[in-house]
Amino acid sequence: MDTATQMSEKTIREQLQEIDLRKKDLELREHLFNMKWGVLENEVRKLAVERQEFKAWRESEETRLRAMEEELAGMSGGDGQSIICGTLFFCGIHNDENSLKRRYRDLLKIYHPDNPDGDNDTIQEINREYDRLHDKICG
User: What are residue 83's phi and psi, to 5 degrees?
Assistant: First the structure.
């Protein structure tokens, strides 16, 4: 064989090896792409499920909120004013008689009927809630 033929065979072999390397690289890239694609498809499915769950939760919360608003609207007095809920005045008081008494005295100063903005109904509700909590704490 002459040197020209040997050179062309060598370049052909080198080109075939390079083609094989590129083919393997392409197969590896395709495999990695398919793996990434599978992960993305799985995550999109999860997002769709979570979206449906969130939508159902939001609708149930909206329904619950409307029911609470209707209940509060139904609790209005004859003059159209809402009845005060005593538990709101004593939020944060847990098993501490001194804190309960201190809060009660402060509320009396604010809502006493002798004050310009005082309200008899509010004081009665505060007294009921104070008695309930006092009995609960003191036994």
Answer: -75, 135
pTM of model > 0.85: no
From CA 72, how far away is CA 83, in angstroms rounded? 9
DSSP string, 25-93: HHHHHHHHHHHHHHHHHHHHHHHHHHHHHHHHHHHHHHHHHHHHHHHHHHTB-TTSPBPPPGGGTTTT-
Per-residue confidence (pLDDT) for residue 75, from 0 to 100: 58
pLDDT single digits (tens) 49-80: 999 999 999 999 999 988 887 776 665 554 44
Contact (CB, 8 A) for 109 and 67: no
